[in-house]
Amino acid sequence: MSKALRSYKGMAPKLGANVYIDEACVLVGDIELGDDASVWPMVAARGDVNHIRIGKRSSIQDGTILHVTRKTPAKPEGHPLIIGDDVTVGHKAMLHGCTVGNRVLIGMGAIVLDGAHVCDDVILGAGSLVPPGKVLESGYLYVGSPAKQARPLTEAELKFLPQSAQNYVLLKEEYLQEQASA
């Protein structure tokens, strides 16, 4: 197991096909990545007291923090971190014990807290804060601290969401080819 991938209490990260994990990130414990996902430099993800799931073609950008909330008698399931398919998580975001749907763009420096749910087809603006338990409805741009619904997404923005994910699939393929030829 590489230094980037570490086990915790017998649980080690599980990777789908064609995944890119930068050697300068750390993934610990109960973490699963779907096919064609990518995790970039300086990401820290700890699936130690609950689990993290990252969907197909999703990318976790540089400096992002991913964590979870412990299971307790009052909250037996705790708060795992679930990230859907075709999600682009911008640089230096923080996702903690939340659920992110499919075809979502999380802007740079955004924070999404315990129990929050970002539905499918959402753009969360850079620097936004999603408080615990808040639901961001599908089809909208959200901005601010706390995040508020700004406007419906345009057709062009809705088409861009899977394209953003695909752009990172292509980029991680270039990185994997570079590694293979080194």
TrEMBL record:
Record-annotated membrane-spanning stretches: none
Classification via InterPro entries: Hexapep, LbH_gamma_CA-like, Transf_Hexapept/Carb_Anhydrase, Trimer_LpxA-like_sf
Cited SUPFAM superfamilies: Trimeric LpxA-like enzymes
The protein's name: Carbonic anhydrase, family 3
Gene source species: Shewanella amazonensis (strain ATCC BAA-1098 / SB2B)
